[in-house]
Specification:
By secondary structure, the protein is an alpha+beta fold. Among the domains are: about 150 residues, Beta Polymerase, domain 2 (2-Layer Sandwich); about 90 residues, Hydrophobic Seed Protein, CATH 1.10.110.30; about 55 residues, no CATH class. The protein has 25 helices and 15 strands. The radius of gyration is 30 Å and the shape is elongated. A hairpin with a 2-residue loop joins strand 12 and strand 13. The strands form 5 sheets. A 7-stranded mixed beta sheet has the order 3-4-5-2-1-8-9. A two-stranded antiparallel ribbon has the order 6-7. Bound molecules: adenosine-5'-triphosphate and magnesium ion (MG). The site of adenosine-5'-triphosphate has 10 residues, from helix 8.
Length: about 500
Amino acid sequence: MRDITLEQMRQLLDVPIFHQIGQTADQLGVECYVVGGYVRDLFLERPSKDIDCLVVGSGIAVAEALGRRLGKGANVSVFRNFGTAQVKYHGIEVEFVGARRESYSHDSRKPVVEDGTLEDDLCRRDFTVNALAVCLNRERFGELVDRFDGLADMQDGIIATPLDPDITFSDDPLRMMRCIRFATQLRMCIEDETQQALERNAQRISIISQERIVDELNKIMLSPVPSLGFIEMTRCGLLPLVMPEVAALEGVEVRGGRAHKDNLYHSLEVLDNVAAVTADWSDEAAEGQTFPHKLWLRWAALLHDIGKPRSKRWEQGTGWTFHNHNYLGEKMIPGLSRRMKLPMDERMKYVQKLVGLHMRPIAIADAEVTDSAVRRLLFEAGEDIDDLMLLCEADITSRNQQRKQRFLDNFRMVREKLTDLQARDSYRTWTNPITGEEIMQTFGIEPCKIIGELKQMVKDAIWDSLIPNTHEAAREYMLQCAAQKGLSPVTPDNPTQ
Ligand code: ATP
Ligand code: MG
């Protein structure tokens, strides 16, 4: 964090729009401040997109007057129900709100709102670091208002509420998710009292809509070290309420002196590993676009083992096993996504696919890396093969350096083979040179099981490099296989009945 003197603040805000806002407020005779995240991010030197302005009076009136002052190019939207207005001007977005005092009832996060003072407004804000305001009126331009020692907390890296945290969180339980999100995004610690209030109020998250919860989860996911957020959610008891399937991964069971790893902390490690390698990917996926998959690759990392608790078995002589946990996990994704209101489109299918396939490269790398195994993988993963390989490399969290190195070496071989095979043949979009139609015509038969069997035999032969990937070779091979099954082609001297 940097220090900012009054003079420096004046320079930072020496942009036409802030002067225009200040002059408009002066004309209407009201105080006006830039407030919240924008001010916090000036100190933290983070880029900030949205500008929030607080007016001690009517925010809407200032927005409308500003719109008139800016003239052409300014677009004003008024939300009377919320008492807010937005001004868009040459790519800048400014949100105006009147200072308010809020009182909440127990079962809703919609408060009763009255006009209030600057003080009233700052104390209804979620955290001290978000309760900073800088005056825009001409006489006090650049003057910082810091009623709750937000600067000191920022300096110490502490997230704390301006008022009693029990009241702040109980009034609007979404703030609990925001608390953990800011701690994760800004790499700050949650102050003790605030932490304890999270534990006491966790259950109140039930009145918050899934969409808002997911918004915060996505921001945690996109942070540099997302595990921090999930560890906080575990600590205060929010994780089982928000994502029971993930919370169920926690814990270690020991039998006969043999323990399995804690799958929650393993999953979080994988998530952090994926976060590290995707750090410089664009955030577009988070903004509703589907490519590239930064956010969804991270979701896949978090969820890759969710099938483990249900597939866990103790097997005499072997120890702990999690057979087919990848397929079980794959099956769990749609239900989880529906409940959490995650997108149910191709983004969900992508996560599902990676969860389902995440054991494959490991299985290949653990044995001999053959062409056919790599081709099969390439065929099933299609265009997501590179993401799958990233996930699988991130999944090697073994503390045994030798073991880890062996896997990484084998993965490198898988990757080399992948590149090689991609150049040689296009198994991503492979189609069988022999169709069911051709088989039916050749033998004069109706649709039946044998057609699928013959196609499978041809596919296996090509993928195992027994025959070349051409129609001629495939037909020849198919005829041989059919002969073994007692089928002969329909020819003029051999008509079928
Ligand atoms: P970011 O834009 O990075 O998410 P931000 O701090 O700007 O962070 P916004 O949601 O844009 O967050 O809100 C702007 C400001 O409004 C916050 O800084 C905070 O002062 C206040 N605020 C937002 N949501 C809440 C809330 N649920 N309870 C209390 N204050 C809030
Ligand atoms: Mg903001």
